[in-house]
Amino acid sequence: MERTDFGRIVAFTDGVMAVAITLLVLNLEVPNVPGNELNDALVDLIPSLIAYLLAFALVGRFWVIHHRLFETLRAFDSRLMTLNLAFLTLIVLVPFSTALFDKFTDEPLAAAVLGATLGLAALTHWLAVVYTLRRGLVHDHHRSANEPLASPVGLGFTLLFLLSVPVAFLSPTAASLMWAATILLHYPLGRMGARES
Amino acid sequence: MERTDFGRIVAFTDGVMAVAITLLVLNLEVPNVPGNELNDALVDLIPSLIAYLLAFALVGRFWVIHHRLFETLRAFDSRLMTLNLAFLTLIVLVPFSTALFDKFTDEPLAAAVLGATLGLAALTHWLAVVYTLRRGLVHDHHRSANEPLASPVGLGFTLLFLLSVPVAFLSPTAASLMWAATILLHYPLGRMGARES
Amino acid sequence: MERTDFGRIVAFTDGVMAVAITLLVLNLEVPNVPGNELNDALVDLIPSLIAYLLAFALVGRFWVIHHRLFETLRAFDSRLMTLNLAFLTLIVLVPFSTALFDKFTDEPLAAAVLGATLGLAALTHWLAVVYTLRRGLVHDHHRSANEPLASPVGLGFTLLFLLSVPVAFLSPTAASLMWAATILLHYPLGRMGARES
Amino acid sequence: MERTDFGRIVAFTDGVMAVAITLLVLNLEVPNVPGNELNDALVDLIPSLIAYLLAFALVGRFWVIHHRLFETLRAFDSRLMTLNLAFLTLIVLVPFSTALFDKFTDEPLAAAVLGATLGLAALTHWLAVVYTLRRGLVHDHHRSANEPLASPVGLGFTLLFLLSVPVAFLSPTAASLMWAATILLHYPLGRMGARES
């Protein structure tokens, strides 16, 4: 039951992620105040804007790593399709979890929900990497590149997200700094890769 | 009037299904409570989360079976395009029917509406399978795979969904278990297929 | 400045139309009533459901005719891109105009707004057909198929939509029957074409 | 780390821009008035309709210039992916900034926010043009076409948008005329290009 028509699976995945990332903007509500209070109302919106930017960068990063995995595949099976749908189920929850965290910034539980959403999405993606290597769905010349990702070390980002769940109960701010750190750690690595090419 | 440019038809279909599946998350509303009641409010959201997960899995399953049918086609005609639009009309109703069922979980009528939406979508898809076989739109080497789906036995899932409509009037919970059963029946079959490959 | 990469133009167009057609469902609001009034509330929703089905069929029909035009093109230029964006601007207004008509079903002005939206979209599409023939953007072997569409006779559907604007001021119901007629006239023609193939 | 599979990057970008441009219509709200006040309520909606048309044309223009840049690329790297995500982050903000400006048309701050959103999006795009030329990601036969865009002169539109931010504090109306001017300046140029082909 292997498949070579990645086209539609990838198009559907990209469509879902494109809608999910765009729905993040619905969290930014136009203030309902008189004109002379607009200045203050916009200042009050800054945390929501930061939450939007952070969530956009996180979903964007998930798209990039999903894109990198699927580039290396030579085949597809039903169980990978199920893992992919589970990944999308969690990505589509990100706009909800972000809005929850944005409204209850000081509540440990809200930060824990967002951390868990991100952590489970990362874990599902890691399971997909491991599964595609085990089942031989990866092109041979990409195996050496993907194998480190499937190692326990490759769980790094996933653990950082999952660790943010208990951290959230100590300090929601510390948890959000951990999520931001995954962006800062990821993008310089990307840049280094680009320099070497 | 046969067509070979499936590309756009499939891209439009995938786009509509990607938006519809993502709109399911709008049913999860951020609670409007003080911070110290967030815990209880999130517990109250769990049924909505389960409805979201179930509806996401159901629309995802419809996408998978649609994908499998279209893979086997060698041509397209206007009536299939009409059947496809009718299928999409019903899929786009799923976020509404899910939100209705989530709000009125104990009302037989709400469960019946969701059951009817799912049943009509499954029936439209079954009609498309039958039609493509009758009109010779299926590649010859896929006929043997598709013919069982077009038989009355292939109506199995459709009947399960349609049967959930009268069942809903006896017990909305029983109806929702029937929908969940289609997921559980589907995914193990997919896994078996993958093992054999 | 001709282009052959229709791919992205078509993908963007399909994306916009897929989102617009799916937004139509937002017009169906889950009733905010006690459970024992759900039956009556759902009966009250039937006109909204009919408006949804009609608007879905109309946008679906616009997608089909857009798809047929773009299949026949061998090149693209900036002015066609502008016409295409103008067409999309009007299609994206359809969910708004439909919601307006659904809320003010008996008001001539609301029916006139929806009729004008549909009529201008049809007119823009007709202008695109004429323009692509005049500028030689159509494949030679498709010219004979497209030329009748560019004739004043090809304006038929456009005139029916535009005529619905003054008719709306006499009877909003008559205007909505005219829109429905374009669906009924279109689909049998499509079916006949399929029979001949 | 160069990539040739532009397909997904472009599909994801088109998906995000298609959703963002369609969300603009959510700014047009169906008036909540009795039927006999519909006429006045629709007249009051005209500024919102103009804001919708202007924003649709602006996002459409950004899509066109993005499309033109990506047509000329022969490779892709991580930093360009980051620039592209930053561009999308700003495009997705346009529906919010437009709704803000539409609600607070006379407030300099609201016009400044929309001007800054458009200006930063244009600047990010200009940086992508410069970066792709510097890093040799552009096909050789497209270099001569792209180099003028990367010159300070190519910053023209970007400067017009950024200049609208201080202008907004003198007159929000003047700022909005500057945005409209970019449409009027752009489309005739496109038309001339088409005439020459």
Note the main sheet of chain A. Answer: none
Shape of chain A: elongated
The SSE order of chain A reads HHHHHHH
Helix tally of chain A equals 7
Integer-rounded radius of gyration of chain A = 18 Å
What is the averaged pLDDT score of chain A? 87
Notes on the protein architecture:
4 copies of one chain form a homotetramer. Chain A is an all-alpha fold and 197 residues long. Helix content of chain A is 79%, strand content 0%. Chain A has 7 helices and no strands. Chain A is elongated. Chain A starts with 5 loop residues before the first helix and ends with a helix. Mean pLDDT of chain A is 87; it is low at 188-197. Chains in contact: A-B, A-C, A-D, B-C, B-D, C-D. The interface between A and B is large, with 36 and 36 residues.
Properties at a glance:
mainly alpha, 197 residues, homotetramer
Q: Short summary of the structure?
A:
Four copies of one chain form a homotetramer. Chain A is mainly alpha-helical. In chain A, 79% of the residues lie in helices and 0% in strands.
Protein topology:
Four copies of one chain form a homotetramer.
Chain A: H1 6-23, H2 38-71, H3 78-103, H4 108-134, H5 140-150, H6 156-170, H7 172-196
